Amino acid sequence: MLSINKKGENIMNIIKKIGVLISICLIGTSAYAAKCSNPKQLRFSIIPTEESSFELDLYKPILLKLKQNTGKKIEFYMPTSYASVAEALIGGFVDIAVLGPYGYITAKKKEPSITVFATYAKKKGYMQKEGPGYQSVLISKKGSKFTTEKSLKGTTVGHADPGSTSGDLIPRVVWAPSMNTDADKFWKRIVYTGGHDLTTLAVYSGKIDAGFVASHRFDNVVAKGKVKLSDFNILWRSPSVPQDPFVFSGKLCKDIQDNIRRTFLELGNDAGAAKFLANLKSSKFVAMTDKDYDVIRTLAKAKAEFKKKKKAKK
Prior knowledge:
Layout lengths: L5 H30 L5 E5 L6 H19 L2 E5 L4 H9 L5 E3 L2 H10 L3 E9 L10 E2 L1 E6 L14 E4 L5 H14 L4 H4 L2 E4 L3 H10 L4 E5 H9 L8 E6 L3 E2 L3 E4 L4 H12 L8 H7 L1 E6 L6 H20 L1
Parallel strand pairs: 1-2, 1-3, 7-8, 7-9
Antiparallel strand pairs: 3-12, 4-12, 4-13, 5-11, 6-9, 6-10
Helix pairs in contact: 2-9, 3-4, 5-11, 7-8
């Protein structure tokens, strides 16, 4: 029978220990790999507008490009509100989405893995300024008696959605303080129209007296020939804020994330994306990070503090 001396026993113990360490490392690597999500299909969604079905058609070549670059089947999820997009993303039902800036920071707070990776740089438009930012704009109908901000006191105003940055957050925490007032006291009624395009059309038709709209969303309505810039009074413009963030779930495996990011950042050089970019009034996508949206967090914090003070006074 083969005997092993003390030195041999030590060598065998070392080999066993190395084997255990290798096993632990392999288990750790497998566990890490299992942590990232590698689904067979990716779900994509956008914040809703009156023209969501039209926008979906424009997104089709982009979704095809995503399919080619990721090797995944791409499914589109049609939302019913700003909140439903965020909820689907937080719940893991949607993997890639376009959110409003305020919707993004709210969703990010609930699900930290949500990652912003890009937005579009706008061309100069009817109301929109060039660059990756936009403004909240207060409009009234041309020919109406509402030609100044003060003349609107006690009237009806349109806000896009409670989750909208330019259509609710900015009017409450930037515009109202600039008027030394509380939005809920200044206006007789605040109506949530469901979108910036719907706010624009409601002002034009006289259903509401004024409205806060995103500069680039307003331009979309003009571009479709539904209204003209000259149909409105522009009574106020906010400071510029970053455009709608394009985000993905940070739980996706890194190669999938990289391919999603690459797809959008290369669209400016893709002839197949020309119609899509033209509809956005954009020439390209630019990389964005979470830090770029800190200005929105500052606004949201101001809104929360304002609500707290308002509640304390009651």
